[in-house]
């Protein structure tokens, strides 16, 4: 047989086999579809059967969530009682953990309630349960989607091992104002990056949904909660619909596309409508336009707060407004249980509305397998195996290292030599376990936290490591300065651990002044006079005003709140066992007066960098951040060259750009290559630049890596005032570099899409 004949035979065989395989694949897909449809049919049949047997009171009970008897996180709420359980009026309980405790509550519910519908147990598992990883803002600075996914997955495994089934995370609110305390819980200021992170966190929490080692996720707080007036938590938000669509909704859409099971409504009002009572938001936007299929839970006592917001006269009307808006579950205030039955009898709320909300909640419980086995999450063996496991501790340390951002490193102060014999650790966070956990620490134990002092001692057991607190987090007490100076004077290097207390950021922790609180800056100034190498390590939940610390420091390290393995992770970075690779996901202002100071601001007719006086600027400060979005140093250096960009997007609307990145320094390292785009001419004013792609790459010293990033034209559109999403043809400036300011540029044209 000739080569030609063999080739022809092979081709025919391939065609035949392809047809067979395609047929088999199609048949398999059809079978899977039928199986899924059957499962859905069985699920709905089961739920229909339950609903037929339930009284109106029992239905409303499924819409009611109560707090356990410990770990209160909000104002006084309606008490959880045995009577409520007996009457079937508890759908969910939050803030109680531990297999034995939850099993006992579930047992009481299953024995005493008539319908024996299992309770859904929830907890604020924000960045771990007993083993804490860095706070979410810190993790976002890793730009490592695989690690962020694994972090959420690990949290789910540990929390579910303690009986938890549902977490109130991720928080996906875009935050452009660092005065707002809850910036610590999100992914920063950029909607593109935040959407990628939201997707990773939802998939991580729900990694094995339906099995007792995963959690239902909850995207919160719907929507634009991160844009309150003056950064004051809970304050009203007033923004355009186009800004809402372009900036604040994309991370929620990413969560929905990732299959998030629940969404939490927000406390604030948006454009005059309280979020927890807005049918436009919870039904028209969230369900109809965005396609959300799960159930909506209120934030803490947010239903009764509708009265205070002045849109209803009493709690009864509050419950009516909320349920008719599409808010399925009432958290902690007992309003639904107290008033909805009467509202149905009066015809103000239809029982069909109640039924639809109950369906969503029963559906969630069904998919968790609770009707099959109400106790399936309660395994003492699994709790003993998974909680605070060595695997989780190791991961926590690695995640913390990847989250650290090196902001300054004058004269290559870092990494520190292992030959150093005398080290001074100074500052209120130097030997503190509790505060390094950050806010929302779930059920973590402070005694498990490795302090900065202990981490350095672990790293250099032969060195003389001495500690002095120096001052407290706040207040005017300078009595500790003398001891700090004495300790520092006898050292070879000073490592300062300064920043915020954990609860200086988080819910209801807005700050007007963003400098280091108390007399910490004075302590820094005093120590600087000694002429010793000064390494300042920051522990905080938000961007701070760091002008003075930056001027004083030889090295400035943003460690955030690193979690359980804080000290070990920081020591790994300080002494060069890990080369820092984190980059900022939120801008650091020079002064508070610049706020809001996000990088992707919209163009104006008189740009601030023009050579004339009448421009968009402050007359006493340049339009520049101290540290921009995307910024972060390494112990090595990276050179960008040979930036290639096609002149136009291809027929599928794809533009593939590439650049050579060379590690020219002395250390192996990771670099986060960032691609920004600017629409040069559009029918609406557009941002000066927008992140539209990135890639994190490892580059050994002395080597060059060709990095390719793909830009999709569908990501380059915008929302008009008439709520039309539009991608317009034209020229786009394509920018690539290590952060949002140091960029190389090319131009590419988009003809159509």
Class per helix and strand makeup: alpha/beta
CATH architecture of the domain at 403-594: 3-Layer(aba) Sandwich
Strand content: 15-25%
Low-confidence runs (pLDDT<50, min 5 residues)? 1-22, 70-77
**How many β strands by DSSP?**
25
- Provide the spatial order of strands within the biggest beta sheet: 11-16-15-14-12-13
CATH top level class name of the domain at 403-594: Alpha Beta
- Multimeric state of these chains? single chain
CATH topology of the domain at 403-594: Rossmann fold
State mean pLDDT (0 to 100 scale). 93
Work out the radius of gyration: 28 Å
Instruction: Please describe the biggest sheet, giving its number of strands, its sense, and whether it closes into a barrel.
Output: 6 strands, mixed
Q: What's the end-to-end separation, in Å? A: 49 Å
| Share of helical residues | 25-40%
**CATH superfamily caption of the domain at 403-594:** Glycoside hydrolase family 3 C-terminal domain
- The number of distinct helices, counting runs of at least 4 residues, comes to 21
CA-based shape = globular
């Amino acid at each position: 047989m000739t080569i030609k004949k063999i080739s022809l035979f092979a081709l025919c065989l391939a065609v035949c086999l392809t047809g067979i395989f395609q047929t088999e694949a199609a048949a398999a897909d059809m079978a899977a579809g039928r199986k899924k449809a059957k499962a859905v049919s069985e699920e709905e049949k089961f739920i229909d059967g339950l609903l037929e047997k339930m009284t109106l009171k029992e239905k409303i009970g499924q819409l009611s969530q109560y707090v356990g008897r410990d770990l209160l996180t909000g104002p006084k709420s309606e008490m959880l009682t045995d009577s409520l359980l007996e009457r079937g009026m508890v759908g969910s309980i939050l803030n109680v953990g531990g297999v034995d405790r939850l099993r006992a509550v579930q047992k009481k519910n299953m024995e005493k309630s008539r319908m024996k519908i299992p309770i859904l147990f929830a907890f604020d598992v924000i960045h771990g349960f007993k083993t804490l990883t860095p706070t979410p803002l810190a993790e976002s600075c890793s730009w490592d989607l695989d690690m962020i996914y694994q972090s959420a997955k690990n949290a789910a495994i540990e929390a579910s091992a303690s009986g938890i089934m549902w977490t109130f995370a991720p928080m996906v609110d875009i935050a452009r104002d660092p005065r707002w305390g809850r910036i610590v819980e999100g992914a920063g200021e950029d909607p593109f990056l935040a959407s990628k992170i939201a997707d990773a966190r939802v998939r991580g929490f729900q990694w094995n949904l339906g099995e007792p080692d995963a959690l239902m996720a909850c995207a919160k707080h719907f929507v634009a909660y991160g844009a309150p007036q003056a950064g004051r938590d809970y304050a009203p938000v007033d923004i355009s619909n186009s800004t809402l669509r372009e900036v604040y909704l994309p991370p929620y859409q990413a969560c929905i596309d990732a299959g998030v099971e629940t969404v939490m409504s927000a406390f604030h009002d948006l454009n005059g409508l309280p979020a927890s009572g807005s049918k436009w938001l919870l039904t028209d936007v969230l369900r109809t336009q965005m396609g959300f299929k799960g159930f909506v839970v209120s934030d803490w006592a947010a239903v009764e707060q509708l009265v205070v917001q002045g849109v209803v006269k009493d709690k009864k009307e509050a419950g009516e407004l909320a349920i008719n808006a599409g808010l399925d579950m009432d958290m902690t205030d007992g309003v639904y249980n107290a008033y909805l039955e009467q509202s149905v009898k009066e015809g103000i709320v239809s029982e069909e509305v109640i039924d639809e909300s109950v369906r969503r909640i029963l559906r969630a419980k069904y998919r968790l397998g609770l009707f099959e086995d109400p106790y399936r999450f309660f395994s003492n063996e699994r709790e003993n195996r998974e909680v605070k496991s060595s695997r989780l501790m190791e991961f926590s340390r690695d995640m913390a290292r990847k989250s650290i951002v090196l902001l300054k490193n004058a004269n290559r102060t870092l990494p520190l030599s292992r030959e150093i014999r005398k080290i001074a650790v100074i500052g209120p966070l130097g030997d503190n376990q509790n505060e390094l956990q950050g806010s929302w620490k779930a059920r973590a134990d402070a005694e498990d936290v490795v302090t900065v002092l202990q981490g350095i001692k672990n790293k250099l057991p032969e060195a003389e490591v001495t500690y002095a607190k120096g001052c407290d987090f706040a207040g005017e007490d300078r009595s500790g300065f003398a001891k700090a100076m004495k300790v520092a004077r006898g050292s070879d290097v000073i490592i300062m651990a300064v920043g915020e207390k954990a609860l200086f950021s988080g819910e209801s922790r807005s700050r007007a002044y963003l400098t280091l609180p108390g007399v910490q800056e004075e302590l820094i100034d005093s120590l600087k006079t000694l002429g010793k190498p000064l390494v300042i390590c920051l522990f905080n939940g938000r961007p701070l005003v760091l002008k003075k610390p930056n001027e004083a420091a030889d090295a400035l390290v943003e460690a955030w709140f690193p979690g359980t393995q804080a000290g070990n992770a920081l020591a790994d970075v300080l002494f060069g066992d890990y080369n820092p690779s984190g980059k900022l996901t939120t801008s650091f202002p020079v002064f508070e007066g610049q706020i809001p100071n996000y990088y992707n601001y919209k163009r104006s007719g008189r740009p601030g960098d023009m050579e004339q006086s009448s421009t968009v600027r402050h007359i006493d400060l340049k339009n520049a951040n101290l540290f921009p979005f995307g910024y972060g140093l390494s112990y090595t250096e990276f050179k960008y060259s040979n930036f290639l960009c096609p002149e136009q997007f291809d027929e599928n609307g794809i533009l593939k750009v590439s650049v050579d990145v060379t590690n020219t320094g002395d250390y192996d390292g990771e670099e986060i290559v960032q691609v920004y785009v600017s629409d040069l001419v559009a029918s609406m004013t557009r941002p000066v630049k927008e992140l539209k792609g990135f890639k994190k790459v490892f580059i050994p010293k002395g080597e060059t890596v060709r990095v390719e990033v793909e830009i999709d034209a569908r990501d380059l559109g915008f929302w008009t005032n008439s709520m039309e999403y539009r991608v317009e043809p034209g020229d786009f400036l394509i920018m690539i570099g290590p952060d949002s300011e140091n960029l190389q540029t090319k131009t590419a044209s988009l003809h159509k899409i």
